[in-house]
Known about the structure:
By secondary structure, the chain is α+β, with helices and mostly antiparallel strands. It contains seven helices and 13 strands. It has helices at residues 3-10, 15-23, 88-91, 114-121, 141-149, 184-191, 223-230; strands at residues 27-29, 32-33, 47-49, 52-54, 61-66, 95-96, 105-111, 129-135, 164-169, 172-177, 196-204, 207-208, 218-220. A hairpin with a 2-residue loop joins strand 9 (164-169) and strand 10. Helix 1 crosses helix 2. The longest helix is centred in the N-terminal third of the chain and has 9 residues, at 15-23. It starts with a helix and ends with a helix. The mean pLDDT is 93. Uracil (URA) binds at residues 100-101, 104, 183-186, 199.
Amino acid sequence: MRLDAYLSRCTPLSRKEARRAIMAGRVEVAGEPVKKAAEPVPQEAQVTLDGQAVTLPGHVYLMLNKPAGILSATTDAVQPVVNDLLPDDLATRLHPVGRLDLDTTGLLLMTSDGAWSHRITSPRHHIPKTYRVTLAEPLSADARQQLEKGVHLRNDDQSTRPALVELVSERIIDLTITEGRYHQVKRMLAAVGNHVEALHRHRIGTLELDVTLAAGDFRHLTEAEIQSLTGG
Ligand code: URA
């Protein structure tokens, strides 16, 4: 779709006003200012007007409280998947934003908007994710320092980025990481000589899992919540 048409579908601007905004340099596509109204908008590109992300109407954005034992996938031949928790009309359109392990619980975003989910999961954006981690052993001061500094994970070239560690109780910590490597939290704790017994994600960026959502329940995100994850 042409940029002026896209913008007028996403915002209250008429096609003519959208063209003016584009020519005035107020519009960026994938981080680059674009001044040509006829420029096609690529599928997964983020479009901003005056620095604010805009999205096509009709997209759906949910937060789901993922239970244990459900795969973060749209379909699977064997295991139940998160899309099975949604009504049919949503299940056919939405995909999970990133993954949680089968036994991990908590905040999982789901959407029909590929550009939005791409931005949240892109390693370039370092959106913080906070996990409540139940440990096999109390966290030693040395292990805490290593997590805060960055640890080397087996088979990975680069150390992890510094993590934020908050002690909740003797064997429970809140760990905030800004990457999304495979089994990252479990591997980080194993690398410092501990073991994860239970893992629950409760925050992505500034978005907290709604405490009123029972395991398996979902709710639609507000416009402010949608923008808070990609608007900045
Ligand atoms: N880190 C893990 O080890 N597992 C998850 O599900 C999420 C982060």
